[in-house]
Amino acid sequence: LSTEMNIHLAEERADDASAESNLPPNRRNGRSQKTVTTESGKVVLDIPRDRNGTFDPLLIAKYQRRFPEFDRKIISMYARGMTTREIQGHIEEIYGVEASPSLISAITDAVMEEVTAWQNRPLEPCYPIVFMDAIRVNIRSDG
Q1: CA atoms within 13 A on the CB side of 23
Q2: Which residues have CB under 8 Å from 43's CB, separation 6+?
Q3: What is the spatial distance between Cα 140 and Cα 108, in angstroms, rounded to a whole number?
Q4: How far apart are the first and last CA of the chain?
């Protein structure tokens, strides 16, 4: 969200420079807390504000109170082999949210039964594989 604010302010400065406005430049104006509900609980975010009130974040929209993709992203990181502590650090780095290791464990434990069932599923007796190979040769004719 801070990066989004940086981009927003940079764009406004560029627009003001081209319009040669006499208005003072738009700047940061603190942060406001917002509680967002995920599938596994509530998370408090610090949303940056600007003086003109023109900042509209893309990651979490202005009036958005639910963040359903949050859990899927944690599960994706866990599936790629990250530990709960690494996921915690990554989420804090990206979203600025302090997610406890117990929250991350709760999210991954919720789908662990499905993951174990998928890993232990019976395999098909035969998986067909087709290898295709080709070569393209340019041949000149008549010259």
Answers
A1: 13
A2: 35, 36, 37, 67, 70, 97, 99
A3: 62
A4: 64
d(CA 48, CA 19): 26
Q: Which of these, 87, 92, 82, 119, lies nearest to 104 by C-alpha position?
A: 87
Distance CA 58, CA 74 (A): 20
Distance, C-alpha 103 to centroid of its chain: 18
Is the Cβ–Cβ distance between 72 and 86 less than 8 Å? no
Helix residue spans in the chain (DSSP H): 2-19, 69-79, 84-95, 101-119
Q: What is the pLDDT of residues 18-43, one digit of tens each?
A: 666 677 788 888 888 888 887 667 88
In 10 A of CB 26, how many CB atoms? Answer: 19
To the nearest 5 percent, what fractions of the chain are helix, strand and coil?
40, 15, 45
Task: Give mean pLDDT, residues 94-113.
Answer: 73
b/e string for 33-64 if b means 16 or more Cβ within 10 A?
A: ebebebebeebebebbebeeeebebeebeeee
Cα distances (Å, whole numbers) of residue 47 to 35, 75, 82, 126, 135: 10, 25, 27, 53, 57
